[in-house]
Fold:
Amino acid sequence: MTLRFVHHSERPELWDRITGEFAGVVPEYNLHGDINAGFWERLFSDFPDHQFLLHDTATDTVLGTGRTLPRTWDGTPEGLGTGLDASIEAAFRDHDAGAAPDALCALGIEIAPAHQGCGHSARLLAHMADMARAAGLSHVIVPVRPTWKDRYPLVPIDRYATWARADGAPFDPWIRAQVRQGGTVAAAVAESSRITGTLAEWEAWTGMSFPDDGRYVFPGGLAPLDIDRASDRGAYWEPCVWITHDVRSNPPAAAGT
Structure:
């Protein structure tokens, strides 16, 4: 295995493989966020050096992806904002205004199903730290989508974020992995990413039927979905947990749990 980080600006054609090889990594509904239509394509046109792949050059295999955006941040938990959507909007607002960024925001780390459990997520996070340092930025900030939150969709995210194992480590595997790599849990946000759609769209995304108005727990959801049949609308707020990594003094390790 010969691993190399390849940025979109270097080999954009490698990204054509993501749809097939990464199928199922992200729940279908998560691909239809309200903010995506306005900004997602601009990740690659405006920030091609900030989107990258972990590529095994020996087998020509894409193992994982990392998506990031530089943005301003005042160093306070409050300054992180209300999660993923607001962070994306802030990054493009900063970019369009010519503001100098302070931090690198991780939008997502994804590992192909065939290559999960090999420490690649830690490698991707470590590369983000390297990118931030090279750009003179002080932190990598991560609006984490907790791995096990879908098992407890009715538990408020601020409570879930405090759960710990008997050994004191965070309960959630992805939060735990980042804390072990030097991250700090800074805030929990209930309304991080907005996803709305018609009833037909939500039924296709979830494999469920919604015969009445109300709140529904659905497969893969981190919180309940609100259904309003009269307006033919389903609305969902995905929560997140903000984790910050000070890359000046405590960079993430290159591998880990």
User: Anything to note?
Assistant: The chain has a mean pLDDT of 92. Residues 197-235 form one domain. The first strand starts at residue 3 and ends at 7.
